[in-house]
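Bug #77: duplicate submission created two jobs. Keeping one. Sequence:
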Amino acid sequence: MRSNAWGRPPQNDIWGDIKVLALWIFIVGIVGYLLFPDFFHNVYDQLTSATANTEEIGEITLPTSSEVKDTTTTGDGTDTNSVYNSIYTGDSEISDGYWALFVGDNEFQQLSLSTESYAYIIRLIDGDRKGEATKILLLSANGNIHKYVVTEEVYNILLNLNMINGRSGTI
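Kept job's structure:
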């Protein structure tokens, strides 16, 4: 055998090294569990409670196809599964162009916007940051949906734009 100037001769015994490593990991795990018995339970609680607070972050999550039944219909008879699938696959109207999505007259409204109208609404939102924001507005630019919390005044402007669009057909 060839000897090493730094210590023991190399043995190339990988299984013996793995067994020693596994033994040390087991010993450290046992000692860690004895010192901190509730550590892993608290970690699990923190991981599961963080997913329940997505509304505070401002994220918009749509249900996955497994969460939506194939025959799901709302009270007015519309099929919500087709809405979610069309958004995910890019086959919906809001995946192209500029859109404002909001609730008006107690129903969901979708307003098609030109580039200038979209820029105008963004400027309104940015200019009115000091007011008390209470209404939720979704703006879509080529399929990228952004959530804004806007003031009542900006929301009323959008409702008025929607009424003008209903009469003339274009904004």
